[in-house]
Amino acid sequence: MPSSRPRAALTLPALILLLAAGSAPAADGADNDTPQATTRADDAPQSPEGRQLVEQRCLNCHGERTLSEAGFGRLGWHATVTRMNWVNGAGVGFGERGPIVDYLSEQSEPSMARVIGEWVVAALLAAGAAFVLWRGIRRWRRRQPTG
């Protein structure tokens, strides 16, 4: 009997792609009775706390142009700020990540493909971590004495 594991492994990324594609904004020329829900970076509210933290933590090493041209979505900015803190020692406190990510994601206009890509990568990383955890628990249980 064939195993259903490969099919189950593809279910989560496929579901995320479908949800992301369904939430994509309509094309500019399409008839749409509802107002446009997305805002441009120029129309977005400015977070003074986030801007101040970005100036203190990010602009020491990066130029404003680098940050504005990165094109990350919220998830991408969160991963980038976390990586900069862990790997590069950016000195971002736990309570400072939220305002920094909020400000940076307000300033960028990522493409839908970029946002979907970020979510697919996150889903694959989560699935990989879950698989490693599952295998570890399984091996640990096999080594336990019975009875």
Automatic annotation (TrEMBL):
Show which residues constitute the signal peptide: 1-26
Under the heading Gene3D superfamilies, the entry gives: Cytochrome c-like domain
Q: Where is this region: Disordered?
A: 25-51
State if Membrane is listed as a keyword: yes
According to the record, the segments passing through the membrane are 116-134
Q: Which UniProt keywords apply?
A: Membrane, Signal, Transmembrane, Transmembrane helix
Any GO MF annotation of the entry:
electron transfer activity
Do the record's keywords include Signal?
A: yes
Q: What protein name does the entry list?
A: Cytochrome c domain-containing protein
